[in-house]
Each structure stands twice: as C-alpha cells, then as structure tokens.
User: Fold these one by one.
Assistant:
Number 1:
Amino acid sequence: MQILDCADKRITLPNKGSGSTSNNNNFPMGIIMRYILSLQLVATIFVCSITYAEGLMENKKITQLNLADLEAVELSAVEDYPFMQVIAGDKPVSSGLSSFQSSDGKLDVGFYYGSEVTLRISGWPVDEVMVFLEGQVEITDEDGESKIYGPGDMLVMPKGFVGTWRQLGPIKKLNVSY
C-alpha cells in the first residue's frame, strides 16, 4: 500500500495489481481523472467569471480625477444613517462626488468634502481607501485607540468598522470604496 500526499490530503493507494492503474505508476486512474476534471472545472469557472466581468465593464476609457470638480457640488446637511450618526457639530455639511463607478456599482472612486463634525460609526458598509487632501480627522476605534490623519495620509477603513470619526475642521479626501 502507498500513501500519496495530494493537495494536503493523504490518499491511500492500492497495492500493485489490485485495480486499474495508469502506466504502472500505481495511481488508480479514477483518482487521476477526478483530479484532472476538478482542475478543468475550476479553470473553466475562473475563465468564464473573468470574461463575464469584463463584459460588464462598460467604461473602458481612462477617467481623470479632478478635485476642482468637487467645488461645483452643492453642500447638504450631514444626516444620520443606520451605520453613522452625528454626535457633535454645529449644523455640519458635506458634499461628495463620484468620479467613477464600475458598471456593477460595487467599485466607487470620488471625492468628499465635509465641515467639522463628529460621527459614531457602527458597521461601516464598505471597504474604503482614503487619501486625505486637506484638514484633519481623528479616528478612534472601539478599543479606544485614536489616531489623527491629515494631508497626505492614507488609510483603509474596513467594512464593519466601529468607532468614532471626528473632523477637526473642514476636510477633503479622495476615496475608493468597494
């Protein structure tokens, strides 16, 4: 009896002469064929998924991001959402501009402007990369760890984040979310 380590699984092979083998290698043909068919199925699903996703991407041109476009967006009052509540601020306002969105709506790239405000974050809804362009933000996680971010700083706020977001004054940021 032989032991074969295959993809971190131990497979016991029958002794020579006790079943169908391929080319005297003592590997039962059934195991090899199932492995090959499994690999082909995975490869086919992968290729079809990529082809389908590429077909969905309607925007195939370069999108230039221009911070000046944010100036034309009207400011509005910061409102509460299920994942975000205003806990301090004197009539805070904000504006946002989506410069690019994937055709499936999951990837979004844009700019944000906001006045001084403190928000309670309870389960941030997306994974978001942020690049701070102007102003400062103090972010405190649910363990009480706090850090101030300012111009040139970058971070990733993961989906599900819980904590406090305090804009120390007006801010502008570039954001990429998925």
Number 2:
Amino acid sequence: MKKGFTLIEVVVVTGLLGIILLTVMGVFLNSMKATNKIKTEQRLDEVGKLVVERINRGIRPMASVDGYLTVCTGAPLSTLTLVDTEGETSTLTCIDSRITLGGENISSSQVTVDCATNFSISCDSADDSPVIQVNFTLISAEAGSYDEGVLIEKSFSIEVVMRGS
C-alpha cells in the first residue's frame, strides 16, 4: 500500500484553504477600511475643533465689524473684515478650499472646504455687541484606504460675541 494523498484530496484541501484565506482577507480588509474611516473622522473632528478655537480667539477680542450696518443686516457672507481696538483689520474668509483669518491658513492641509457651499458667516447684534456665527464643513478623502475617493464630511458651527468694543 502506497502512502500519500490522492490528487482529489490535494485539490479539495487546496480549495478549502483558498476559501478560508479569502474569507480571512475580506474580514481584514473591511476592518482596515473601518479603521481608516474612524481615523479620518477623528482627524476631521480635531481639525474642526482647532479651527473653531482659532476663529473664537481671532474674533472675540475684535472691536467691530468693518461696515457693520451694511454687512450684518444682509444674507450670509463668505468674507468678514474685523477691526481691532487699534484700527488694524483682520479678514476671516474661505479661499482656495482653506479657511483663513488675518491671511493665515487656520484649516489643515489634510482637509478642504468647499468655499462656495460649505462656508458662511453671519452676524447679528446682541446688547450692542456683534455676534458672529461661522458655519463650515470640512471634507477629507480617506487617506490610504482601499476605497480612494470616499469623502467624509463633518460640519461645525461657532457663535462668538465680540467683546473688544
């Protein structure tokens, strides 16, 4: 009697191992996609909170809004010029998919903002102090994912009372 495996036994075992390997790889790839999505959402959240804090620190001490009566009574804006107590101006705007304050990029290079549809500034008056509301949505593609082109968006809103006046 010969010892060994028949061709059919080898083919069946190879097929079963292939099926098991494909199943394990599918689970692994799906977990990698989920991990990338979670990391991207966390990055968007961190960047958004940083932008909100920078906007808050940039607007709160300002003395006034340049052209307050005409600017703060109309439709939402895409650019707002602020004036400090010494008369120096600082502009909050969205340019080239980046949020800038005083000419400095305050959003990360890892995310973008669709300036035309996902960025707006409005203002109102509360007890003679301008209240500035900024709404923006950060957009990020999942970096390094197997599903390139999947966009993740997160919206943020901040309302700041100017106290410098």
Number 3:
Amino acid sequence: MKKILCTIIIISFFKLSFTVAADISNHSDEALIYSIYFNAFIEQKTKHNKEPKEKPVLIIKDKTEMDIPIDTSGKNKYKDEKNHFTFLSVFFEKFKIVNILPDTFKDFWKRNQESSTLNCVIPIENEYIFLTEELENQILLSGDSTSIFSEKLYNRFPSAQLLGVTTLSRVGFNQDKTQALLYAGFMIGPTSGAGYYILYEKKNNIWKEIGRFMCWIS
C-alpha cells in the first residue's frame, strides 16, 4: 500500500451531532470520541445507500497506532514530539480551526508511544469486531492461498467491505478535558484508504468535531 502525504484540509462547515444509542454516562470520554468518529464515518460511507440490506459491520484493529507523517523529502522528521506538534499546529492554525492546546498534544503523544489494546465499549449502533492477531491469522489461512487479505476478510464479513478496516490511536486530552485529538485511518483495499488527525471540543458537556485534515491517502 502506498501512502501519499496529503495537505488537503477538510473542515466541517456544519455542526455534527449524533445521538448515542447507549447510556453515555457509563462510557469514558475516549469511548465517546470513538463513537462520534464512527458515527460520522458511517454516515459518510452509507449516505448514498438509501436502503442498505443490513448495517455494515465495523472491523477495528484491536491495537492502537499513531501515524507519523513523512515529509516531502522522504525523511521521517515528524517522529520527534516537537516537530510533530508543529506539523499539526500549522495546519489547524492556517485554516483558523481552534488551535491544538500544548497539553492536548502532550497527552496524545504520551498515550501513543506504545500500542495499546482496545477493550472499551464503543457506544454505536453498528456491530463491530476487533481484529486481533489471532483472528487475522485465521483469515490469512482461510480460503484460496492466492487471495489477498482483504478478499478473505470480506468473504468472512461481507458487509464490512463498505467500511473496511479501521485503525485508531489513543485519544489525547487537555487537562480540563475540553479538547481531544484523535488519529483514525481506514483501508478498504490495497489502494483505497485514508488517514486523518481530528480535533474535538467539549462544550456544555457535549463533544463535537471542530476540524480535521487528511494526512495520507492511497
């Protein structure tokens, strides 16, 4: 899969607000951020399917990851915390989105230095499956040995083809938990996917997306 560094900024000019089906009082802020992301993602991917036969299944990697952008010279200079923060800040500030607070990014960076296992309950209506290493190996060993992984995956979970496989980072928060930063990427096939850094803000006890930019596309 070839990732292309993308400088396209995607700004939401309308307010996105979703009603969570579950009792949100029982869920962490991190789970709620995941919920808001997935509700927007599912709406965007299914908006042209007026009458889907069934709600598509979400396949989520059970290990968190943080994408490190590669600059135009091919060097990985953003692996450094300071450079990575500057990289994100420039894009969000340029388009007059609320600035990333330093403590938001510091928490995001700290939480994502090591991969974590996702075990939270995400309050969304769609069924979701965590793609564990064990499940991935089972899928790889199944079916025709010449088939690529995505073909085998969708043979097992046909409705997942609409949404692909999602990778999430841990969510970083400022000290007051009024701002949150998330990295999320998805791959539907070897040449179909994208990754985003997304900023959220909490007002009147409600989390809402306030801006995002696409950091890679394939």
Number 4:
Amino acid sequence: MKKMLSLLLVIVLCLSLCACGDENEPPASSTPGSSSSNGETIEITAENWQEYFELTYDSNPQKITCDKYGEISIRSAQRLLTPKKKYVSWTTDMNISIEFLCTQGYICLNNYNPTTGITSSTSPIRHMPDYYGKLRLTKDHIRQGAYVFGALTPESLVVGENSVTIESTRYEKMEITAIQGTITFRYFPVPNF
C-alpha cells in the first residue's frame, strides 16, 4: 500500500512539473506577430494601434523674435503620437506609416500687448481646407514621440504701434485614417523561485 501511494505521488509530481513548462519562455501574445531572439514583433493595424499608442495634445511656449519688442513668448500646440508609457521601456524598434486627416481648420489672430504681456485671441477670420498628411514613426521616436500635426501653429506676425498680431493656423479635429507597420518589444527573463 505504501509503495503504491509513493508511486502515485511520484507520478502526480512528474505530471505537475511537465504542466508548468519553462518559466523563462516569453509570454504568448494575443496579437499576431513573430518572435525573434531580440523579442516579439507586433503588427500594428487600424484595429489595434490604440492598444499600443496614444495621441496626446502637447502645448509649449514658443519664442518669436521681434525687432521692436525683442523676444515674445507665445504658445503653440501639437498633436503628439507616442507609444503608451507602459510600453516605452520595452520597445526596441518600430517602423510605422501613418496617414491622417485634419478638419475644422481656421486662421485666427492673437494680439500680444508688450506692455501687459497679455495675449488675446480673436474669433476665426478665415476657414482652412482639410489637411491630409503622412508620417513615419521609427525607433528615434520611441521616447519623445512624433508630432503628427500642429493643432495651433503660429504662421506670421505683424508689429504694430502698441501690439504684435500673430496669425495662427488651428485645426480642431484630427483623425488617423490609416496606420500600419511593426513595433518590437524585448523580453525580460522571468526569475526562477
């Protein structure tokens, strides 16, 4: 009886070890791709790009030099496409082509008062045609992302007696119409306990 019970325990132990497999094996992906010694390459499509990337709105000061008033600080805004933060440190390569469409564009005027330092905006003075563009993301864009299109782009400036008028192009909506390519993630070994 003891021998039979011992033999049964040995069989159960062997089966449980076989079922666990290799713990250092990389996790299987639910997305079609290929594995290599460097990691896993995922195909990016219109159906899955939002799982790996995010489209953010980045606004930062831009300096314009004016002879009469010196340096003027105005804001410009861009739409930025980057890998999601949880993937940045895992990403080793990417090669992605993007096509996008910007709509609801217009020209507006920003009046800068050098005495007060205040910039005020006017309502749209002229509508802009829709803008269709293309972009390629490479491994150089992994950390900082890539500017897809300027949502608010200063175009020209007119220096007046008591103010500076800055003409800016603004597009309210942006849509990615096509996206395709690959992104490669490296693997990290799973520790054995």
